[in-house]
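Thought: the user wants the 3D structure for the chain below. I'll pass the sequence to the structure tool as-is, report back what it returns, then summarize two notable features.
Action: structure_tool
Action Input:
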Amino acid sequence: MQIEYHIDGGKGKKIDFFQGLTADSVSQGSVYYAINATLANRRAGLASTKSRGMIRGGGKKPWRQKGLGRARAGTRTSPLWRGGGTVFGPIPHDFSIRLPKKQKKAALRSALYEKAFENKITVLDDFVISDGKTKSLLSRISSFAGAKRVLLVLSEDNELTKRAARNISWLSYNHVSRLSIHDVYYAKHILVQVSALGELEKKYGVAQ
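Observation:
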């Protein structure tokens, strides 16, 4: 498989990407489970309600059992009463899902392969936005703005480049070693710095 390599902002040549992989290497199941786990791990799980045993008071019977014409009542903490406990309400809960490392790799490999197959991955020359200005970064990647949801894969952590990128609403960015299946799968286009390409292929290019 080949993808485009843009040299100095203009279209350059085609370069090899994920050689040896075929459509049979794509695991849709791994992608599904990885995205499901990513979304589950983002849940705080802090929703909390009180059961009838947690409500303050309720020790005294509100009124006598017979003779008043009212329904029987034994406690003010009953779920039927205003201010009473909640039946089967949410409680703090850990929703996190742990995936095997091989399944995570298979998911990212599959997502990257599909993006490359759809011509949605472009390799760029290495660059650093030394002045930290958004305008400088836009001058390099503005031609991809039409995708609306672009992922920039960086080869090195540079605070000035990140500062320039964080003001662009349609652009997200991450270091090549910290790629998320959610970011890759939902990106409309992926821009990869050329020095990050080798690490991508090393980690995900060969099925294990």
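Final Answer: Structure generated. The chain has two domains: 2-32+100-204, 44-94. The beta strands are 2-7, 10-16, 121-124, 150-154, 171-175, 189-193.
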